[in-house]
């Protein structure tokens, strides 16, 4: 019996391996196959959850089937959570040194990563 397949939308092989490892915790078996699918999605703006939901809708339409997407933010406490979901744009514009320079005047240089995952069973289906 062939297992249903879900496309994890990424071009990053390491992310696919990580997702498989996370989802298969426990007995190590998944009731579905998870494959990598590279879909060129736009860089969206907004709240991290809204971004993940919209990316999932776009990816489901493009893949014409079930998809899993993730969106990761890097949030510096000193910058009130910035750059958040805009980390790629920040790094493109400022580079690592520029981002570090923004934190020079702050004692608190701590940060956290936030990953939002969204699933859709296919085009026009609800995103969860």
TrEMBL record:
Keywords: Hydrolase. It comes from the Eukaryota. GO terms for cellular component: cytoplasm. GO terms for biological process: nucleoside triphosphate catabolic process. CDD domains: Maf_Ham1. GO terms for molecular function: nucleoside triphosphate diphosphatase activity. It holds the Pfam family Ham1p_like. PANTHER family: INOSINE TRIPHOSPHATE PYROPHOSPHATASE, INOSINE TRIPHOSPHATE PYROPHOSPHATASE/HAM1 PROTEIN. Belongs to the HAM1 NTPase family. This is Inosine triphosphate pyrophosphatase. It comes from Pseudictyota dubia.
């Amino acid at each position: 019996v062939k297992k249903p397949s879900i496309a994890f939308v990424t071009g990053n092989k390491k992310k696919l391996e990580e997702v498989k490892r996370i989802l298969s915790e426990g007995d190590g078996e998944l009731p579905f196959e998870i494959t990598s699918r590279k879909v060129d999605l736009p860089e969206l703006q907004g709240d991290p959850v809204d971004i993940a939901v919209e990316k999932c809708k776009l990816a489901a339409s493009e893949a014409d089937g079930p998809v899993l997407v993730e969106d990761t933010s890097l949030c510096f406490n000193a910058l009130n959570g910035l750059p958040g979901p805009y980390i790629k744009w920040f790094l493109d514009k400022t580079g690592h040194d520029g981002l570090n320079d923004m934190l020079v005047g702050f004692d608190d240089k701590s940060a956290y990563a936030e990953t939002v995952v969204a699933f859709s069973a296919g085009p026009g289906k609800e995103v969860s």
